[in-house]
Amino acid sequence: MVARTLLSRIRPLAARARLFSRTYHSYDHPPPPGPFSSTESSILSASLPHIPSHGFTLTSLSLGAKDAGYIDASTNLFPQGPFALVRYHLMTQRLGLAEKTDSLETAEGAKPMGTGAKVKKLTWERLMGNKEVVHRWQEALALMAQPSNVPTSLKELAALSDEIWFLSGDTSVDTSWYTKRASLSTIYAATELFMTTDKSPDYADTREFLDRRFRDVQIVGGAMGSVGQWVGFTASAGLNVLRSKGVRI
Amino acid sequence: MASRLALRPLLRAAKPQFQATQVHRCFTSTTRRAESPSQSTNHERTTHFGFETVAEAEKEARVAGVFSNVAASYDTMNDFMSLGIHRLWKDHFVRSINPGSSSTIPSSGWTMLDIAGGTGDIAFRLLDHCTDINNSPQSTITISDINPSMLAEGKKRSLQTSYANSPRINWLVANAEHLDTVESNSVDLYTVAFGIRNFTNKEKALREAYRVLKPGGVFACLEFSGVTNPLFDAVYKRWSFGAIPLIGQLVAGDRASYQYLVESIEKFPKQEEFRDMIKDAGFVVPGKGWEDLTGGIAAIHKGIKPVEKA
Ligand SMILES: C[S@@+](CC[C@H](N)C(=O)[O-])C[C@H]1O[C@@H](n2cnc3c(N)ncnc32)[C@H](O)[C@@H]1O
């Protein structure tokens, strides 16, 4: 019951997000996605290319402001400082996933991908979205772990799980809805952290790590939707996720 | 008990004396303003002076009078009105702006303008932050006030700081509504702390702020505001309306001036309303547009002048 109400609230949101990301790529000047105004978006998107060399810092934000025609003082537009960059990165990467669903189509005549395989594939795509900034990702994690940023960070993580399941065509409305999302959140956060230390070519180790996590939880294709497990998960998910993100609690 | 008894004659004496000073100051501060506010004619534009409604021209003169009277004992009174925390607010205000920050080394330096800068309180803090935190000794500031005696007080104080006779500080006597000598698009940061509620035409001052700021420049205002918790509001009003003018009388010997200060705070637009005024002047605001301090006794409002798309 609760699941259904929540679902009906989240689904339209996800649908809208997909709509946004579609228009995003079809126009030169996209409508501002999510919580950012068009002025903020123009500065933030100009800041993204500076992250690989300057990190998730005020410097990247200042440089982006300059590229967008603004000045150093304009960073006052972002009361949360460089966390705005983290949030913008997370959001645009999440919304960008809708563009990647082409890779889920199989050749004509071949067996179509199952939901589980699609979830795996999209999770991998999302992780690869961090490739350019992975050597700076610890900075992002530290910002996400700041008490005032934790709620937003967790919400964004939940939204990512939801988006992945949604794009994979999951239509279940039972209690497994929660389990699936909680489990995916945990897996994603752990793998993302693992990736920051991975030096193997093409992130082969990360790939393996991810596969192992999926096997551990057996959520993909299987039904581990027992209520007891779900309660355990939700109770500890937030904490675990945070711990895996490097918060000492 | 004993103290209350001791205060009673003072309280009783306060009312008539209040009127006496009022008339006295009207005569002294400007000879044009001999008539009392109630006689102002219909075709004169009126504005608020505390809870009284007065002609606009007269308000300017009266505000100047208030601050001339208050200048010397100004800090003591600020302490009473802010429950002793205005210094913390000012520190926070400056830190939140992060003046002098730069993506280049060395910093190119910010050009700053502190309006209603009176005693230099905000300006010295801004310069300190530029120098100590952001390694930007290139940053400069113009301290502007309508009242020469407030500026004189500030100059005197600057001698006690590391900015004595510094070329980084300019002094400018000007009405915030007509910053004629300040060039358009020339300023990185415009600050006004505990000043804007005294302006006769706040919209006009905001338009001037917009004009002088560079595209991307920041308008930042620290001002007494609307206490958000009703209980706290009642308590604070009791304190400010009851105690402050009385203390003003004891400390500064000028009850009327403090009566005005307290009433002007109450009259000042509340957070949302002021945010909308800032937007109406053309600024984009960060987040919801303001930050409450100490339950809303004061608030920081900001706006950024957008860059015109080519
Ligand atoms: C309460 S003091 C604030 C001083 C200082 N900014 C601070 O925070 O301590 C208000 C100042 O506003 C100035 N003022 C009042 N009306 C003004 C106007 N129209 N233009 C410029 N300054 C004005 C007064 O002269 C006075 O110095």
From TrEMBL, chain A:
Pfam families: COQ9. InterPro entries: COQ9_C, Ubiq_biosynth_COQ9. Keywords: Lipid-binding, Mitochondrion, Transit peptide, Ubiquinone biosynthesis. Its main location: mitochondrion. One of its GO terms (molecular function) is lipid binding. It comes from Phialocephala subalpina. The keyword Mitochondrion applies. Belongs to the COQ9 family. One of its GO terms (biological process) is ubiquinone biosynthetic process. Residues 150-218 form the COQ9 C-terminal domain. This is Ubiquinone biosynthesis protein. Membrane-associated protein that warps the membrane surface to access and bind aromatic isoprenes with high specificity, including ubiquinone (CoQ) isoprene intermediates and presents them directly to Coq7, therefore facilitating the Coq7-mediated hydroxylase step. Participates in the biosynthesis of coenzyme Q, also named ubiquinone, an essential lipid-soluble electron transporter for aerobic cellular respiration. It is found in: Mitochondrion.
UniProtKB/TrEMBL annotation, chain B:
Pathway: Cofactor biosynthesis; ubiquinone biosynthesis. It is an enzyme of class 2 (transferase). S-adenosyl-L-methionine binds at residues 119, 145, 175-176. Its main location: mitochondrion. Its EC number is 2.1.1.201. It is found in: Mitochondrion inner membrane. Gene3D superfamilies: Vaccinia Virus protein VP39. SUPFAM superfamilies: S-adenosyl-L-methionine-dependent methyltransferases (SSF53335). CDD domains: AdoMet_MTases (cd02440). Belongs to the class I-like SAM-binding methyltransferase superfamily. MenG/UbiE family. Methyltransferase required for the conversion of 2-polyprenyl-6-methoxy-1,4-benzoquinol (DDMQH2) to 2-polyprenyl-3-methyl-6-methoxy-1,4-benzoquinol (DMQH2). NCBIfam families: MenG_MenH_UbiE. This is 2-methoxy-6-polyprenyl-1,4-benzoquinol methylase, mitochondrial. The lineage of its organism: Eukaryota, Fungi, Dikarya, Ascomycota, Pezizomycotina. The gene is COQ5.
